[in-house]
Hints:
The protein is of the alpha+beta class. The protein has helices at about 5-10, 25-40, 45-65, 80-90, 125-135, 140-150, 155-160, 165-170, 190-200, and strands at about 45, 75, 80, 100-105, 105-110, 175-180. The protein is about 50% helix and about 10% strand. Strand 2 and strand 3 form a beta hairpin. It is globular and about 40 Å long.
Amino acid sequence: xxxxxxxxxxxxxxxxxxxxxxxxxxxxxxxxxxxxxxxxxxxxxxxxxxxxxxxxxxxxxxxxxxxxxxxxxxxxxxxxxxxxxxxxxxxxxxxxxxxxxxxxxxxxxxxxxxxxxxxxxxxxxxxxxxxxxxxxxxxxxxxxxxxxxxxxxxxxxxxxxxxxxxxxxxxxxxxxxxxxxxxxxxxxxxxxxxxxxxxxxxx
Length: 203
């Protein structure tokens, strides 16, 4: 069953099962969507969700500081921020001022509705946005899913540790409530691990 067919079930889950965004996160995620969909016209939803995760992953690996500090769950298509997935699948009330959602058959595309505002972004953030676009703009959603499923990725480790890897890969299940611990990206770097822990405790 395609993930889109499970939206109603996901929306019926307890609010406690997914992370609610702060107003600062909404602004930063919304403007990141504007940036990405401006640089990558007619941006597929799956590709957008993968790029959001990659921005967090790269940022934490580089400095210990999350890009968005989103919560990602272990789903069939990789690490997914459940609340944002639901927003984009339900025509995105919270991101309405930033993006326009276009549906064509069973495909969903993201287009910018406003100009990019960099108020929530550091110089390093802007550099990382450009880096991720340059590195991944020509990759398909399927290729980005493969990237997040690569051996030793957080998604792969969590899926195998929780005995759901084969079920997800075979399509027996499409989503779980398993939350990725992004701190594991820097578990072997004391300085970055400390920065990550301090940042997440403060935010």
